[in-house]
Amino acid sequence: MQARRIAVWNPKGGVGKTSVAVNLAAVLAENGLPVLLVDLDPQGSATQWCGGEREAEPGKALLAALLAGGTIDAIARPSAVRGLDVVGSGPAMYDAERHLALEPIAPDTRLRGLLETAGARWKVVLVDCPPQMGRLVTNALAACGEVLVPIADAMSLAGLGTLVQTVAAVQHHVNPELRIGGFILSRERERLRVARDIRKALGEGFGELVFGPSIHECVAVMEAPSHGEPVTRYAPRSRAADDYRALAAEVFAREVTHG
Ligand SMILES: Nc1ncnc2c1ncn2[C@@H]1O[C@H](COP(=O)(O)OP(=O)(O)O)[C@@H](O)[C@H]1O
Ligand SMILES: [Mg+2]
Question: Residue 180: which region, alpha, beta or left (left: phi > 0; alpha: psi -120 to 50)?
Answer without folding.
Answer: beta
